[in-house]
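SAMPLE LOG
Freezer: B-3
Tube label: C17
Construct: single chain, 169 aa
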Amino acid sequence: MPLFYGVPQGSVLGPLLFTTPLSSFIHSYKLDHHLYPDDTQVYISLSTANTDPSLKQLISSLRTSLVIVSDTVRNLGVTFDSDFNFRKPVSLTCRPCFYHIRALRHILCYISLSVTNTIATALITSRLDYCNSLLYDIASKDILKLQYVQNCLARIVAWSPRFPHSIHF
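STRUCTURE (predicted):
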């Protein structure tokens, strides 16, 4: 079928017909950018030499324009906060994990251990593992939040009671 507009997904000509002209256009405005198969990111780089007063002026001038300045930014599925302390990203990771743990608890009696492990890995462990190297040296209380998710998941997968009896030696 003839295609008069656009580029077919997965086409070998896609990068040549779409990304190269787009990259040239963005570069003509002296902007930095990254091109991905399904996304384009345009950004402004700042050096540490000009971040103090000029950055504050830039941010204050952007607040009166159509550009929305945010305290967090999402890049390739990872949320970065303005302080780089990863407190909010940890919370944003834990929330859906607990949702899936609760949902998994409801269907435990209907599925095998193997299926439980597969679901736990696909829906929860994969979220905890994604880009976890960025969490190096985060605050202890944020590590404890992530550990709590893992402990809850381990109890579900092992079919342990919520408050197991412990033996002290």
